[in-house]
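Appendix C reproduces, verbatim, an entry submitted by the partner laboratory led by Prof. M.T., so that reviewers can inspect both the input and the predicted structure.
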Amino acid sequence: MDSASAPEPNTSHPVAFPHRRWKNHPCAGVDFPDITSSTSDARWMRLACDGLAAHLDSKIDLLAGIDIGGLGLAGALALRNALGFIDIRKVGSIRADVVRSLTANYELGNGIALSKGHALVGRHVAIIDDCLMTGGTALATAQLLDQLGARCTQALFVFELEGLGGRERLGESGVAVHSLERLPPVQPE
């Protein structure tokens, strides 16, 4: 963690969420924006939930929060909008009987997992996560949900790192992307 920014909310301009950047994480040349500076403050958490809610398609009835940054956001947004919520976890982080997608890369490790038993057939699901980078985790999530009978056509993020191809990768697969704030992949000095 090399830097932090914490501007005050301003409704006349796009919101710049407080965050700190983790240098060269998860790989060299990428500084991951850690959202916990925002989510630990009720004002910012409300702004994030309100911003994400403004982009939710009216057909959505279930939110899929991605481990770890998307879990709290999706839970709060589900409560705010009276929607269902499921958690998408990294393989190995849950011990229940799971359905998984094994697509290894730096974002996914050994893939993603979802506890079995969710009624997903015909459900309209939006993916929620804190940051979009290459789109690998979100795409694996959308594909797994689609395989299980859900319709996953939307992904919402607080941050999007520009130039890493995530928006394009998801768009090519029919998943619309909305992010509240776009950032360069490396924190400017």
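The beta strands are 3-5, 19-22, 32-34, 62-66, 84-90, 98-101, 112-115, 124-132, 151-161, 176-183. Additional entries are available on request from the coordinating office.
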